[in-house]
């Protein structure tokens, strides 16, 4: 079993000392004092429990045992560095890559802006984009399969281990086909009790907002269908299969085919869209660049 005195740092000091042949040069190379180098080498000798050095006058000379240990330790240190790199790679922490998750509804506007702005800051960065529901993206973030996500901030208390960078606030609208355009400029949901409605499957921010509106209205919607993505939902609304409650940000996707009508204030639901990442990754330079760009977009959206 290894002695507590034998550490990777002391092996690194030994390798430098054998290579440079001088306490002073080793101290300069590793930004330590000569006294610290001397103490580390003798501590390593005690830990190995065999002679490594001999003193010739004022000089410390490595014995063959020290030369052998330094040669072997060099290979060990290279291997440890390789293992750490591979470990970081499995966690997605690579100098040139980041995995970003986003809701489908952000792909028409905010996602391209954020990616382009981040790549200007870090031109060699590759960004892999993963699309999904609020619930799915949050799960992937905590699993470590993606490093950052852009979602509607959950209304429940957020865990302490995440960082939130606000992007913008969004409001929900009654979405109708052009042929069923509402007569009023603002919608009183009490008048839509008998209408047919469509929404997304559970787990999406749009679905959560949908039910929040009807909770405020005080009745259950006449729900005829749930679908799996925002594009299918909007196509169905546009074709007149039913109405829905949609966030304003999706106007850019199919705004010409769907009528978006504001809700009366008493039914208003606001979604807060944000970039979210784990606190443990806040020193990752890729995350820092992404967060800086998100803050700039937030300022521009005010």
Fold topology:
Elements: H1 8-20, H2 23-30, H3 34-48, E1 53-56, E2 59-62, H4 64-90, E3 97-102, H5 110-121, E4 126-131, H6 134-143, E5 148-152, E6 162-177, E7 196-200, H7 205-217, E8 222-227, H8 230-238, E9 244-247, H9 251-254, E10 258-262, E11 270-278, H10 285-301
Helix pairs in contact: 1-2, 1-3, 1-4, 2-3, 5-10
Task: Describe this entry's structure for a reader.
This protein is α/β, with parallel strands linked by helices and about 300 residues long. It has ten helices and eleven strands. Strands 3, 4, 5, 6, 9, 10 and 11 form a seven-stranded mixed β-sheet that branches. The chain has a two-stranded antiparallel sheet with strand order 1-2. Strands 7-8 form a two-stranded parallel ribbon. Helix 1 crosses helix 4 (about 65-90) and helix 2 (about 25-30) packs across helix 3. The longest helix is centred in the first third of the chain and has 27 residues, at about 65-90. The radius of gyration is 30 Å and the shape is rod-shaped. The N and C termini lie far apart (about 60 Å).
